[in-house]
Amino acid sequence: MNLIKELAQRDQVFSFMMPSVSPVDVRHGPILYLEDVSVSFDGFKAINNLNLTIDDGELRCIIGPNGAGKTTMMDIITGKTRPDEGSVWFGSRHNLLQMNEPEIASLGIGRKFQKPTVFEALTIFENLELAMASDKRVLPTLTARMNGEKRDRIEEVLTIIGLETQRYQRAGVLSHGQKQWLEIGMLLMQQPRLLLVDEPVAGMTEQEMERTAELLTRLAGHKSSHGRQSVVVVEHDMGFVRSIARTVTVLHQGSVLAEGSMDKVSSDPKVVEVYLGEGH
Amino acid sequence: MSDLISSHQAPSANAVNSRHWLAQPFTEKATQRFLLVLLGAVALVSVLHLAFPEGHPLHVSTYTVTLLGKYLCYALLAVAVDLIWGYLGILSLGHGAFFALGGYAMGMYLMRQIGDRGVYGNPDLPDFMVFLNWDSLPWYWHGFDMAWFAFAMVVLAPGILALVFGFLAFRSRVTGVYLSIITQALTFALMLAFFRNEMGFGGNNGLTDFKDLLGFDLRSDATRLGLFIGSGLALAVGYILCRAIVSSKLGRVSVACRDAEARTRFLGYRVERVQLFVFVISAMLAGVAGAFYVPQVGIINPGEFSPLFSIEVVVWVALGGRATLYGAVIGALLVNYAKTVFTGIMPDAWLFALGALFVLVTVFLPQGIAGLMQQRFRRRPEPTAEENAA
Fold it and tell me: Domain ABC transporter: where (chain A) (predicted)?
């Protein structure tokens, strides 16, 4: 119906004629849509006919034993790895397989790596500055100037991640847990529509874990100026997953083994077998 | 590697800029100090040269003035290399190629200025073309009789080569050792090409026997002093430009590309374009250095393309200290002064001395002389702009 209405509006450019940098189209529900994705490295099928749908504003946890393809899946979504077959859509308008990493990033997909990667030679303030949503082309970056509005935004995130007193220290001196937080802070600066978070609580203390859980649940569904935020968390720590998850997807050997609430999934005999078989 | 480099920059040196990017360097204490020393030294040498008659103990001879001018050109080349090596992590072992191309552009202009005063008295053709029995100028020699065109080519020729080379290399994500090796191959290939007489650049002998530049006689003391001052100013301007880039947000993105390229990509920056932009600027600066170098030494030949020379430049920067810019200047001046002294005493021992120097610096002074200076004169960090504002 919407489409027909739109076609009737002769004073506007049809949405399907607009360039692909237009905003994400989530009118049909999902913000991320992977269909029949397969990829193999030297004959090893890392991802095998994977189907996954993430709804707009959802917080989804993805679990699975080592080698289940969790990180490879993130690589495919962010453009680092190209799948052999299948399709990956961001909203119903953007074909991610036709884009490179910076394009996907500026579209609003932010990623936190498994191993925290921050720019160690730069200060915490500068790390957040570089991550801030802005014109990332070369010349605008050269002439970019700090102003009150941007500074306020950085201060806001500094408070959220609890690093405000260390803002002028080099990121290299931070502890492992603090680096994780800084990286989450960098994600927040990007104001992404979709956050991909790879093992966010690795190396964190109980307390830090609680704060992370709280932050992630607050972020999911949060309405920013360009829409709701969705969060995908890949995690090993079952306690952590239980504390935040609404829906859990279990990956095994590159495809979805089970999906549903934590209780439903953990009582699924196939899941139990995979995890028990792994010695858990 | 990044650990070594990161400790160079005091956090205060990266005050997040709220000013125009070109105005930023003038507010930095270290840059002010550097410019003061550089321009002060240039002025002092000029005054000593002019005010005292020859034979007076305080007189600086024309020979020394020209020698110092040559060092200043090398220093600018070193700054260009430090810009991409220190801040972007691109180790170019072929920057001599851009230096030489700038030099050749200048040399071609100077050749055309000779006019009919050459040995064969041909008003259009340089001597070596007459000697080779060519009857007309090759197409690429046209325009070099005009100063504006030649001076534009000084930056454009290295710039365009860097643009094409960098586009291909960075687009295919060639970095690290592989890139170093191709840059080395690039300068070697150019050297072989320029050695050939058919190329039309004077082959083995290169371009020499220059008479005058913009109407000034190149053999007069006044012109030599002028070229020395010009080299000093070129170094100052080049230094300010590099400083402006590294203290801009783009400079911080460069450091980000150097230390975590993939991460920078996922933040939405086009790493290959950042690399290309800074690489081209660096090549252009190297070209300018070459253009000031050639009229002072009076010759340009394919030897400047020699891979060894490009490696030597990297040694200057390593010795002075990476990612500081002023370290590159110190390194270039010191090593070349040492070279002048050493090759005077024991010409054969120079390469061994250079090699030993490089090994010793790598082992004992990984941050170079600049790092040593920072340790020695460790002051309390200056408050940054942010802290001042708070």
Answer: 32-278
